[in-house]
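Q&A FORM
Asked by: J.P.
Topic: structure of UTP--glucose-1-phosphate uridylyltransferase

PROVIDED:
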Amino acid sequence: MSEGLSTGIRKAVIPVAGLGTRFLPATKAIPKEMLPVVDRPAIEYIVEEANRAGLTDVLMVTGRGKGAIEDHFDRHHELEAALEAKGDTVRSDRIRRSSDIDVHFVRQGVPRGLGHAVLCGRHHVGDEAFAVLLGDDMIDERDHLLEQMIAVQAERGGSVVALMEVPRDQVDKYGCAEIADGAEGDVVTVTGLVEKPPVEEAPSNLAVIGRYVLHPRIFEALEHTEPGRGGEIQLTDAMLQLATATGEGSGMTGVVFRGRRYDTGDRLDYLKAVVQLGAGHPDLGADFSAWLQDYVAGQGGQA
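REPLIED BY: S.T.
REPLY: Here is the structure written out as tokens.
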């Protein structure tokens, strides 16, 4: 371990510079990360997940048109005062909660891919291991994937990536991991990574999902990573360098996740996330579930 490298992980990088084209026209003027999932914007779930895992310093890598995200995590004193004057402490506490987390912002001037977005966080992160959370992937708060990944990184060193089994015919939509022969259990050694491989060439059905715990050596790898698929600097390509390297900061471990994940970057999965989280909402869940059952029964009767 190099001098000055912290063993405790406290920083998270959340790239939010994407254009959200799959949700147009809804995202023409509103960042996709601000689309509501029940009663909170999607990005708030991601930040709260980082905070639950003990990450107290969050950096968001933004782009043009993302000012609403910065506003959301800023204090709104007038609104808080108006709510408190009405005695509405419940809503006042809700909006204050989103501004009590230490959130910083840096701009990704040119959209050059996920790898470049992570590289934009280099000066803020420094010489520390850190987490990367993608805003399109929501992990249910009852599942503690990020906490497990941080513990694995503390034990094994190197970097850690979250993996999930997907149907074989869908591996070409993801980064795909190759794992060591004979690996058993849900903590595996990653020996290779391929970004969106053809189905017939995929080394496994283990897809990379949007949670990473990375050694700071990743920044050096990203600096020397040429644009890959789509002409962008792919984080997967830089991670492959670490997986196959030797020395300090090398090696890649995969944590196979079998919990509840919501892909809010896809329109259909976004709707599923709203329904699933709405059904489990502490205030709305019971009434919503009852209505949903009646609605589904009624639709079936009309078929």
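FOLLOW-UP: The first helix runs from residue 42 to 52.
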